[in-house]
Design goal:
Distance between the termini: 9 Å
Order of helices and strands: HEHEEEEEEEEEEEEEEEEEEEEHH
Helix content: under 10%
Radius of gyration: 19 Å
Strand content: 25-35%
Number of helices: 4
Oligomer: single chain
Number of strands: 21
Length: 273
């Protein structure tokens, strides 16, 4: 993921003269002002930044719980798989929540681990560099979402003008459905779909993705290119390029056969303009 899209860069300019940084850490004795993300959100003013420390304990409760953002804030965690990616020594923790509901326009979320689902129920949301199972953009409230540079383990439901770029997607499309649904007048570009489709699959991109540019992606299976959208310079293969998909580092460092290096040049999650 060499270059950041200008639109993302513009959306991420959040510093103002009156902005405050609020720190969250739920480890006993940490000394942080807030032990839970929800408490920091309650105390924040629109435009503030909430920094969430890594922890061995999930924020916001256990199975089925959720953290809800109802103010325009920047929520920043420490990143995911830090030990595996060589960023920290053994024991480096992530900042995890089970579900995340984003209900404030202009919210930015990066560096978090969402165990289950993020629901984007607001406009102009930037969701960047997170690890997440599933993403759902609200049908009427989620216009112009930017989903950029994430590791996504399940399906994405986009909406009007959704931008899905430079993500690694390890969902296996099967009889139950595709990897990406619902995008209209959006862009799906420079993503790596790192696993093959299952039998009787409907494909990576659903037929209900319409009026969307789909370009420079890497797909691990061949499929029909729907006439409802424009497909440009994608790479389709039935070969196994990625034997391990546990981390983004493993995918990036995979040695691709010389038969494919020229064909995938300029495509996939680590490329783009």
């Amino acid at each position: 993921m060499k270059k950041t899209i200008l639109l993302l860069a513009a959306a991420a300019i959040v510093g103002t003269a009156n902005a405050t940084i609020l720190r969250v850490n739920n480890t006993s004795g940490s000394g942080a002002p807030y032990a839970e993300i929800s408490a920091a959100i309650d105390a924040a003013e629109p435009g503030d930044t909430i920094m969430v420390d890594g922890s061995t304990t999930q924020y916001g409760g256990g199975y089925g719980s959720a953290v809800t953002i109802e103010k325009k804030v920047v929520l920043i965690g420490p990143g995911y798989w830090r030990t595996e990616n060589g960023i920290m020594t053994e024991g480096g923790s992530e900042a995890k929540v089970y579900n995340l509901y984003i209900k404030a326009n202009g919210t930015v979320v990066r560096g978090m681990t969402i165990v289950n689902r993020v629901s984007i129920e607001a406009a102009n949301v930037v969701f960047n560099r997170n690890l997440v199972k599933e993403i759902a953009v609200h049908e009427t409230k989620g216009d112009k979402a930017i989903i950029h540079q994430n590791f996504i383990q399940d399906a994405i439901t986009g909406r009007n003008y959704t931008q899905i770029t430079n993500n690694i997607i390890t969902f296996v499309p099967g009889y139950a459905g595709a990897a990406i649904y619902g995008v209209n007048e959006g862009i799906i570009a420079y993503n790596t779909f790192a696993l093959k489709r299952g039998d009787n699959s409907h494909g990576y991109i659903s037929e209900n993705v319409k009026n969307t540019t789909i370009k420079n992606n890497i797909f691990m299976s061949e499929e029909e290119q729907h006439e409802t959208s424009t497909f440009v310079d994608n790479f389709w293969t039935t070969e196994t390029l990625y034997s391990k998909t546990e981390t983004d580092k493993q995918i990036k460092e995979t040695k691709i056969s010389s038969d494919f290096t020229e064909q995938i040049a300029g495509k996939g999650a680590f490329e783009g303009d």
